[in-house]
């Protein structure tokens, strides 16, 4: 029995430790750093980069000679007879007489070594270039994946900060609305206020409780979304520290999308040149050595015959006609090259305009948020003074409720300004990151 109790205690301790496991982040940069090591999308992009690196080495392998060795063994269980003229070996036998003869030996061993190396093959070099460009594209895809993921993480991170603020304001509203409701209910019981005033106070109290519950639940959902992006099974804790960026002096890193479009353009140009080079001849050097050993005893070569063969040569292959498929391939590659050129120019222009716009939008959102904080502070002061004056009987409760309603309405405007600022904040942060 004591052993069972001890085992139960250990199990409970382990369960408690597992339940309380937590990953904490004190800044958005820490979230990004964690995602670099654990997010499955980045890991997939990195794995693809390893694959394309191997493909570059594989493409270079086509420049080396190919060497193959083959061997065969034949056991002639029954050798077919051949009719030959009998007077071939004995002239005294009249013509027209034939005799059966068997040619060949029972055991035949064949072996050969062949080597070939392309001396002129333009396709090999174009394939190497394509492999290199694909390797660059894979590296840039890591950067693009990081950029997209960083935006998702920043959105989730700042949304949590926004929900924390909404939860804090809602908790204050619950406290204020509950206090007002208590005063109004007492005065209603004394017949000093109407039922309309009581209903309004009740509505405000219920709304405040509902908003607090929604903010809390939305924060839990957002935390789960962040856990999915970070591939974290345990709980996480966020301590937001927002650093204000001076956008006027911001320097922007190279846009991975523009770099990707440029390399895709180079790849398309290489494919176009490769399709035209398909009309070029191929010159190869070849070498081959063949050997055949025949005997009447298995694996005994004392009374065997050996028949070797060896040669070297040059092989020239000239493509003459293949149903016009190469012409169509050149035309398709040309269309793709034109499209990639247009996409590159569009990406470069879009990136330049976005850099200008993000500075303007950030400054606008920053100043609007600063004004919203000042305005909210004034509304909070008005609500505080209105509460004091209502408690002293200087203003009626209906007017007190009006000041509270104004405060709650302005809180929504304040949270909207905060949301706009957070969005422009992380957009500007991401534009300044060098993802290499």
Brief sketch in words of this structure:
Its main location: membrane. The protein has 436 residues and is an alpha+beta fold.
Secondary-structure blueprint of this entry?
Elements lengths: L1 H19 L1 E4 L2 H11 L1 H21 L5 E10 L5 E5 L12 E5 L4 E14 L1 H68 L5 H36 L4 E4 L17 H22 L4 E14 L9 E13 L7 H67 L5 H35 L5
Parallel strand pairs: 1-6
Antiparallel strand pairs: 2-5, 3-4, 5-7, 7-8
Helix pairs in contact: 2-4, 3-4, 4-5, 4-6, 4-8, 5-8, 6-7, 7-8
Description:
There is one protein chain. The protein is 64% helix and 16% strand. Residues 1-20 have low confidence and may be disordered. It is elongated. The protein folds into 2 domains: 20-64 and 121-281 and 324-431, Outer membrane efflux proteins (OEP) (Up-down Bundle); 68-120 and 283-317. The longest helix is centred in the middle third of the chain and has 68 residues, at 122-189. It has 8 helices and 8 strands; from the N terminus they run H-E-H-H-E-E-E-E-H-H-E-H-E-E-H-H. With 436 residues, the chain is an alpha+beta fold.
